[in-house]
Queue: 2 jobs
Job 1
Amino acid sequence: MSEEKKVSSNVVWHQATVDRQARETMNGHKSVILWFTGLSGSGKSTLAHAVEEKLHELKCRTYVLDGDNIRHGLCGDLGFSDQDRVENIRRIGEVAKLFLESGVISLTAFISPFRADRDNVRHITSDEDFFEIYCKCSLDICESRDVKGLYKKARAGEIKEFTGINSPYEEPLNPEVTVDTGTETLEESAEKVLNLLIERGIIQR
Amino acid sequence: MSEEKKVSSNVVWHQATVDRQARETMNGHKSVILWFTGLSGSGKSTLAHAVEEKLHELKCRTYVLDGDNIRHGLCGDLGFSDQDRVENIRRIGEVAKLFLESGVISLTAFISPFRADRDNVRHITSDEDFFEIYCKCSLDICESRDVKGLYKKARAGEIKEFTGINSPYEEPLNPEVTVDTGTETLEESAEKVLNLLIERGIIQR
């Protein structure tokens, strides 16, 4: 029966194998997760976007995950309790892993204050795939910037569990890069990240 | 103070604008969500991978989201209750939207039985961005294939709320494409999808 044959051919079709390596070859660069972590106001998102711009100029496929596209979408159901923060970072890590498989360099810009949560993302990927970038900046400087006015609100008690004020930030122990966003220029910090990617063979100039 | 100046320059940096259009231009094709829906065993994942292979040959950037990479990762905390199914599809829709913004053609292969859930994904994107592809196949054929042995378990009462058996499947009302995976060959179905993408100006041969 011809219909039977067709149905059967549908089922036994060899699973197509467009895999990460095939995508990386097409892109001309490897994929990786660039995980920016640091206090609110430390310049994570600004740096991530600056690095993305440089990568884009080098014809790399990139995507920045940050509060703008995550907090109102995928994680719109989560608040800021410890439990919700853990779930927030878990989901972001899983999404970054999907982008990794898709051949895209993803840049995540979240405070991600807890060491265990960041380590979990490293563990669902690998040391070769996960670059932790510590945006080091003193609380004083971050608070003096206060771009979003959040520190003022936290000091006034209007925001509870605000990282650095009444909720801890756990510094990375062995980040792939530390950028001193309090003293370096944005250009200097971005170049540090770019140079790491070149050293590790992820991209080429 | 030079340090002050540097700090300030970090803050006022113009937000980089690598946007969807810039990515699409680099890729040489538009991004879109190809949402495959249909009964278990209707060939959604097989078809999605076949379409992806054709797109990859045309140098398109693609990624398939299916049970293999979602159910154990991002949605590993969800079960199969109605509530969890809704949340499952919501998250997949949000992730597909992120891929859309990143310039990648994402292909999602999930039963996604509820019309409202699929429509929600359409609404967080747009009619231009969301192509619903109905993998139409009779329950008889799907059940006779029973690749994963799930229908047998559902009939035996070992799986509750199994779509088509004791949980409803709501057919798309106005899908962008209907492929009859019960009678068409995989090649025919995949070509239908490719032709739609060409007609709509998403890709070029």
Job 2
Amino acid sequence: MQKSDILIIGGGPAAIVAANTARDYYPKKSVTVIKKSEKSLVPCGIPYIFGPLLQSPKDDFIPCGERAKKMGINLIIDEIVKIDFDNKIAFGKEGEEYSYEKLILATGSIPNKPKNIENYDAKGVFYVPKEADYIEKMYEKIKKLQTIAVIGTGFIGVEIAGELAKSGKKIHLIGPRLLKNAFDEEFSEQMESIMLSENITFHKNRHAKKIVLNEENKASKVLLENEEEVECEAVIMATGYRPNTKMAIDSGISKRQFDTIYVDEYMRTTKKDVFAIGDCAEKRHFITRRTIPIMLASTATAEARVAVANLYNINMVKSFSGTIGIFSTVVGDTCFASAGITEENAKCEKIPVVSSTIISDDKHPSKLPNNHKQTVKLIALKSSLQIIGAQVIGGIDTGEMINILGVIIEKRMNVFDLLNLQVATHPLLTSAPTAYPIVQAAQNIAKLRIGKE
Amino acid sequence: MQKSDILIIGGGPAAIVAANTARDYYPKKSVTVIKKSEKSLVPCGIPYIFGPLLQSPKDDFIPCGERAKKMGINLIIDEIVKIDFDNKIAFGKEGEEYSYEKLILATGSIPNKPKNIENYDAKGVFYVPKEADYIEKMYEKIKKLQTIAVIGTGFIGVEIAGELAKSGKKIHLIGPRLLKNAFDEEFSEQMESIMLSENITFHKNRHAKKIVLNEENKASKVLLENEEEVECEAVIMATGYRPNTKMAIDSGISKRQFDTIYVDEYMRTTKKDVFAIGDCAEKRHFITRRTIPIMLASTATAEARVAVANLYNINMVKSFSGTIGIFSTVVGDTCFASAGITEENAKCEKIPVVSSTIISDDKHPSKLPNNHKQTVKLIALKSSLQIIGAQVIGGIDTGEMINILGVIIEKRMNVFDLLNLQVATHPLLTSAPTAYPIVQAAQNIAKLRIGKE
């Protein structure tokens, strides 16, 4: 029996932050992390392994062992197969027993396998698990190929397709409009117009029906629902993720929709002294209040900090009243980012909204070199003008601009608050103070309600 | 007599936004702008006229005439010399009379001339007014010179010195540590270590006593207080600005400290139907509550929007309870930004604070090309842990990252709110979710208050 005060199961961002935070807050407690593999990688860095930016999968590895040692964290490589919540013991694959005072489940998520596609798990069909060993082998195989079909147009599908194309490969991308859940149609269309110049054939709104195998039983074609066949040497399935919760649920923990683990506002599960954080824990949408399958490392790490603060006493209330869904990505040299709900999704959820889109520059005067157009769309509740969604297209600073909008949504600011916004502007760094696009878009909405004298 | 419904005096960012917003909100009202010169320039773009980024002063011009015409704004070139507030008439230089229903004073600021420096206004001594005609002439003269002394180490001094140096000129920069009011000492020192590699001799903590003239009565040396002499062909005085309010005060408007015009939370002056916005209007510090001489285009434009919304009815409360002072600039290829109060200034004001500084990367994994180190310092009230100041050093996205911190300060968020922050992270655009520096710095402060079990 190995005893720990604080036991964390998992190896992703939630587990890493939970362990570091536990060290910060509870220096007298022993902290143990149990993860399946020696190696760890930056999950959202995986697509870039397949492109020209990183030289090999190793460039995406996290030196977990060294860091754990430095931090005084006990790192154990094992797979937990069962937990006895009553006696507070987790069981390893080889029968090892780990007892705990406080347990944090951070088991993450695993690729979703689309069983409606025939031969979905055949030879030559790859998934994108956040597992270094799998990704290393996949990388070696994909590297030698020329034509690859990518099924799925979420972030992982779009980014892997883009990176493979930049490495000179011929890509068939199959799925609905790009990043449909994070962006409105006009944003997807701009993304598509940039991507199409990049060695990619986009089979838009097509669905894969079957992976056709060759005489070696290896994927050689994708058969679409319209009977079209797409030839390829391999298929990458970027068809989403599901919570990795089978072990915890089989051990008796309460679950919620999408097989997530039930958690309260302090990240406590229904079992005594057991917390769950990250992709395996339930998420609710900030505005629709529904359970949603959004999986984000940044949400996971915020949850880790809430859970650890509340391990022994309630020290901190989760101040976000739901997950806002905040994303950014890069297509070509243009950045796309989104926070909150899209106009399309708001309409589906019967949320009356008003919106405004402003196109500005990210430098001023616009004659400065490297000026990049900057598009900001704001979506506000029609009733109170509270901001509930935003989308941005622009240069490299789009990655932080969306985080301004994230705080605005989280703090339930409205259009009039934005008219008041005090922002730093600088010729080389932002749009002009007279044209700051977040404020301009707010004013476009405000003018529906002011004046007309 | 020329009649207008809404009359705006001034030509800077506050006046531009006031005019555009008036058009947006009150389409039936006539809007007139009276400014001194046909030409307008982007004020914060002025330093870049003197460097390699812009080709000539014209690249920094704003096509005010065209834009006004397009927006249906009546643009008049004249100088208002007196206002009869009782009869609601403004008088032009040649005796022209302009009547108004509502008047907005946006007369801006003018260079502060340091009368304690002998020969402060001699030939070969230049100031940096926001006047296109002056800057054009100054540019033609400076262009031909090789050695220039810049007095003053605020934003304009540092930026002009940097740009002239990049154009191959030899610069003597004279003043206290760089950007003393916006940054703590360790940030100034980093800035200095970058600037010194750039053709600049920094006479740190030296004060100019006299401009020494040659036989043609032209500036040829700066005599410092320690009797050292700095040879130069011209002197640029970057010695701050003062409100351009003499005309309004002489006409009878109530003034406040630093000769600013008194305004309330709706930007109303003491005179009926008269509003003041921008550099000429009083500013109060968000935390010290003192009147402060901060002059920022972004604050000016926010005030313009508040004033115009409230011209005929109270439609909008100024939601910022004071000016937070939010700045960004670029030195070499490194960006520096600041919001709120510095640790040093907090101590001077007897505000007990705690602070934490985190150094992270702006990409992840850090092996990605163009990764830039990112330093974030947070300053919080020791009592409530409310964030009251922040400083950032980093790459190009520093310009928007400081605006996240601006919203955080404005919305009075505390360290625990930041631990909860939902941010978008992306390998090519931000630090890792596990290492996001704003959150890490917050945790460093939070750990003073949590745990120790």
